[in-house]
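Subject: Predicted fold for Helix-turn-helix domain-containing protein, 194 residues

User T.R. writes:
Posting the sequence so we have a shared reference for the thread.
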Amino acid sequence: MGESSARPLRADAERSVRAILEAAERVLSEDPGASMEQIAAAAGVARTTIHRRFAHRQALVDALALSAARRLAQAVDDGRPDTAPPSVALHRITANVLEVKGAWTFALGVPTAPGSEAAAIHQEMAGHCLTVLERARAEGLIDASADLHWVRRVYYALLGESLHGDADDTGVDTDTLAARVVDTLLHGAGPRRA
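User M.O. replies:
I've generated the C-alpha cells; pasting them so everyone works from the same file.
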C-alpha cells in the first residue's frame, strides 16, 4: 500500500511543477522581473510550495529554460528529421517549432549556461537542423555549394521573424507560417522559374 500511495504524490508533484512552470512562462513573459510570489499566485500554489520546489528564482528560470528546450526538442523529433522526406521534415519541424516557440517565448529566450542540459539539447537540435539541410541538399532542394551553417542561420532568422510577427500575420496559423518560412528558405524572394 505504501508504494501505491507514493505514486499519486509523485503525480501531484509533477502536476504542481508543470503548473508552476506554465505560470512562470505566462508571468515572466509579461513581467521579466516578477517575483516568485507572483508566479506562485498565478500557478495557484502556496508560496512555500514554489520555494520547496525551487531553491531560488534562478533555479526556477533554469528549470523553465530546460523544460522549454525539452518541448522544443520533442517538436523537432516529431518532425522526423532523419526519416521524413526533407521537404516534409522541414515543414513539420518548422510548424512544430513555431508553435512551441510561440508558447514559450520567455523560456526560450533565456541564455543557457554552457555545459547545461538545456545547452546540450539546443546543440543537439542544431545538429538535427544540419541533418535535414544536408538531406535537402542531397535531394537538390538546396544548392550543392551552399554553406549549410549559413543556411541554418538564415532559417533561424526566418523563424524569429515569423515569431515576432506583423499585424498582418494576426490569426495566421503555424502551417501557413511554416510554408512561408520553408518557401523563402528554399526559393528566396526571386522570380520563380517555370
